[in-house]
Amino acid sequence: MYKSCTAIVLRVTKYNDKSNIVDLYTDAGRISIAVKTGGSRIKSSMRMLFRPLSILRIEMAIRPHSAIHTIREATTAIPLSDLPYNPYKQATAFFLAEFLSRVTDGGSEDRLMFDYIVQSIMWFDNCSKGYANFHLVFLLRISQLLGLKPDTGEYRKGMVFDMRNAVFTSSLPSHGDYLTPDETTALRQLMRMNYDNMWLFRMNREQRNDCLDAILRYYSLHITDMSHLKSIEVLKELFD
After folding, report:
1. Are 110 and 117 in contact (CB under 8 A)?
2. Phi, then psi, of 102 in degrees rounded to 5
3. pLDDT classification of 161: cutoffs 50, 70, 90
4. What's the mean per-residue pLDDT of the chain?
């Protein structure tokens, strides 16, 4: 049986000398396909096509009772003009693709999630300046689709954010997984960011990385497969 779908590239893993496994996210959930690498010219074209966060049109042969399907054809569904060639955007794409590979479900259909990711990629590709906070906005906004968005309406000055229970509280939790009052105030400010106004939130690299660490720490308490992200170190060196 054959199937066609639009897919976002998350990860490419070498399977053997002749093929790679490509993890994709579609509106029907996660899928994996086997892609033959062939000669050097084919390898080069495959690297270009299967870059992290590329949006492709995939035709594949469904293999019953197998987690890995066979590709028949892959073409660009939405051309990206800047992201594949901009080193800052590339590093951000590697990080977000790795993050998505940890938080997206292999078997559940989620059109809202898929559309959010596609629209975010297109916005990022078209943005020419003021996008240093893009990854923070992406992580915070997608928390709602993952059912993990904190309810900032409960916030009052001086409260702390209990990351285990995802609530704001006036008393210190008995555990250590919480943000201080100053950090909690910063979180509330971050939750006001969106792609259109994020350039107004001025942060240096250290402040931005502190925010990133706090967000990922929160995710790690609620998502089991959130061990160390390999691409984060490169991302942390970007954007003064």
Report:
1. no
2. -90, -30
3. very high
4. 89
pLDDT tens for each residue of 36-47: 776 554 456 677
What pLDDT was estimated at residue 231?
93
Please tell me the distance from the alpha carbon of residue 153 to that of residue 192, in angstroms, as a whole number.
12
Specify the pairing of strand 19-26 against strand 2-16. antiparallel
The DSSP symbol for 100 reads H
Selection from 121, 117, 58, 59 nearest residue 84 by Cα: 121
78: number of Cβ within 10 Å? 14
Question: What are the boundaries of each domain within the chain?
Answer: 1-79, 82-150+191-240
Q: Which CATH architecture has domain 82-150+191-240?
A: Up-down Bundle (1.20)
Task: Give the three-class secondary structure for 86.
Answer: coil
Cα–Cα distance measured from residue 88 to residue 232, given in angstroms and rounded to the nearest whole number: 13
Domain spanning 1-79: which CATH class is it, in words? mainly beta
Q: How far apart, in whole angstroms, are the C-alpha atoms of residue 221 and residue 165?
A: 9
Mean pLDDT of all residues in 196-221: 92
| Interstrand relation of 160-162 and 178-179 (parallel, antiparallel or unpaired) | antiparallel
Q: How far apart are the first and last CA of the chain?
A: 51
pTM, full prediction: 0.91
Q: What does the alpha-carbon distance between residue 139 and residue 114 come to, in Å, rounded to a whole number?
A: 14
